[in-house]
Design a protein that fits this description.
The protein has no helices and 24 strands. The protein is mainly beta. It has 2 domains: 119 residues, YVTN repeat-like/Quinoprotein amine dehydrogenase (Methylamine Dehydrogenase, Chain H), CATH 2.130.10; 76 residues, Thrombin, subunit H, CATH 2.40.10.
Length: 225
């Protein structure tokens, strides 16, 4: 990941950056996700949630960034215009950007004790993915809907106006937002592997990261590049 000329690398107990390599107070750990939101770098790992606020000599490390997540696994971090969402083994919490207040989202979920793998949202809905279910919260009305998904591990979710795409260990899940119908894009459609880790959408194409390489996919016409 590169932002403002800084390169961040995370894998197998290693965290490195030229700017913070000399800060002894940062505890190395297995890192699962990083997310840069405005002037705060959020870092999630096997031992909780950390944050680095500011830049250069004035940078401040907040560890842990939330006490409930101390020594808890954090798998995914996502932010929209209003909230920063933290997905962890104890569920979902969110920080309201305007007030800085932390919110417990687990009360909205059908399985409140179940880990949250990933989340995505826009100005209308929040989609929350757990072990075998997706929960959709309407931001305007507060109404909650659910979709049963026969897939256990979900790693990354993105959405556009009409669709939601989720990288999982069984392929890429494509969900229609209006009808809530879904299909699984896998090796049958040409993916090199069903084990997908990440997905982004750009210029009408899906870029899908698998354990056998990166592919570009025209999902409307089922054409793989």
């Amino acid at each position: 990941m590169a932002e403002n000329g800084i390169i961040w690398v995370s894998y197998e107990s290693l965290f490195y950056t030229e700017v913070f390599a000399q800060i002894d107070s940062f505890v190395a750990q297995n890192l699962n996700c990083i997310y840069l939101d405005e002037n705060i770098l959020w870092i999630g790992g096997d031992k909780g949630l950390f944050a680095i606020e500011g830049e250069g000599d004035s940078a401040k490390i907040i560890a842990p960034a939330h006490p409930a997540l101390f020594e808890k696994k954090v798998w995914n971090i996502f932010a929209d215009s209003s909230y920063v969402f933290i997905c962890s083994e104890i569920g979902l919490i969110a920080k309201e950007k305007q007030t800085g207040k932390w919110l417990d989202i687990n009360s909205f979920l059908p399985t409140q004790s179940q880990a949250v793998h990933c989340v995505s949202s826009d100005d209308k809905e929040v989609w929350i993915f757990q072990h075998s279910i997706a929960t959709i919260i309407d931001k305007q009305t507060g109404n909650v809907n659910e979709i049963a998904l026969p897939i256990s591990i979900k790693r990354k979710a993105i959405m556009d106006k009409n669709n939601v795409f989720v990288a999982s260990d069984k392929g890429l899940i494509h969900i229609e937002r209006k009808g809530k119908n879904f299909r699984i894009i896998s090796t049958t459609e040409g993916l090199p592997s069903t084990n997908t880790y990440d997905v982004i959408q750009k210029d009408g194409f899906l870029w899908i990261a698998t354990d056998r390489g990166l592919v570009r996919f025209d999902w409307k016409n089922s054409v793989l590049f």
